Amino acid sequence: MYKEIDTQMKRLLLVPLLSVTLLFAVSSQAQDVLRPAAVVNDDIISLLDVTQRTQLAIISAQRKNTPEVRQRMLRQTVRILIDERLKIQEAERLNIKISDKQIQDALVSVANQNKMTTEQLLGGLRKQGVLPNTLFDQFKADLAWRAVVSRHLRSSVNISDAEIEEVVSKVRSQKSGTQKRIFEIFLSVDTVSEEARIKQQATDVFATIKNGGRFSAIARQVSQSNSAGLGGDLGWLQTGQLSSELQSSVANASVGSLVGPIRTTRGYYILLVQDERSTKNEQKVHLKQFLFTLPANPSFEQTQKVQSRAADAKRKYDGCSTMDQLADELGDEGSGDLGTINTNDLPQNTRDAISQVKIGNTTQAIQVSGGIAIIAVCDRQESGSIDKLAIEEKLTNDRLDTLSRRYLLDLRRSSNVDIRL
């Protein structure tokens, strides 16, 4: 699926592409869209790449496609593409490879969020002059960077019991019985000289969302947080889990509120409070799983093979502490740590399967979306309890965000980048 675009497709899309390239004041000849807009360590970013990504960002955010908007987005788009090339180059240096299946899974996820099939999503983009590879390149960079961060930074993050207890104390002091579903867009300010530009970008992004732009789509395009690949979704949080710089802004925000831009020591945040729920009368479980995928209409032989793999995994399971590595070895994509989940958010058959499982044990093989799973219950918390695992996970992700931005900043400083616009 992830192949170089062929000459015929370029020719078919040439007319809409050339209309977009007018913002760069280039020649109307077709070959001009292929000239370098920037060079990153000998890796060329063409005008075609820039115009395509600009068009994708405009479509995704439902912004007005005017010359002024495109011109304002030009430098921002180039910077994003430069960072993406650096991320992919670093992954390649570390011999990290992103498979076509990973890209396909990301495509399916975005299509589902937009309530479309993948064919409808790609077809709609083509009609508006955006080649599929533009979206695939973005997915590849995001997946590659996540793998780099996971492999080289996660092991260096150790959250102490004291840090967890500090957040627990904040949550208890608020005496709140609610959680909020929060989405974020983060724009980093790395140097003093960037302050005015990033502040203006944050203001523009906030205004775009206020005028009807889709938050999650814009987060995917511009946010510099690790949550960008999830559309900025931070999940369900109590406000005490947020940094002190953000807590006061969100504490009294009602459902549907857009908050920001908020200047913190690291940069600008824009937050969306999408929903709110009571934490009473709920149970949370920390789950891990072996997932074994099946096609939509599996044959008897395929089903038998998967059931045999599931039975083998269940035999080899010896506890939650070692399951992550075992899941990588025995399971398919989607195996591993599922995090802490409210049981009310689980499918009924999964809820029923884990209800009688003791902490540390696993379910029998059960049918789940996409295949068969063996699910381990690693923790269970009753109504009103404070989820320390979720707090640790949030602290870990915050620390990883900081480390990954430093990592990327070091890559920028040590690389040869030549912007030719």
Structure characteristics:
421 residues; alpha+beta; Triger factor/SurA peptide-binding fold; Chitinase A, domain 3; 3 domains; 4-stranded antiparallel beta sheet; 15 helices; 11 strands; globular; disordered N terminus
Total domain count? 3
Fourth-level CATH superfamily of the largest domain: Porin chaperone SurA, peptide-binding domain
User: Could you give the order of strands across the largest sheet?
Assistant: 4-3-6-5
For the termini, the CA-CA separation is: 31 Å
Average pLDDT reading: 83
The class by helix and strand makeup works out as alpha+beta
Q: Tell me, what is the CATH class of the largest domain?
A: Mainly Alpha
The residue fraction in helices comes out at 40-55%
Number of helices: 15
Q: What is the number of beta strands?
A: 11
Shape: globular
Report what the structure shows:
With 421 residues, the protein is of the alpha+beta class. The chain has 3 domains: 7-152, Porin chaperone SurA, peptide-binding domain (Triger factor/SurA peptide-binding fold), CATH 1.10.4030; 178-281, Chitinase A, domain 3, CATH 3.10.50; 284-381, Chitinase A, domain 3. The chain is built from 15 helices and 11 strands. Mean pLDDT is 83; it is low at 1-29.
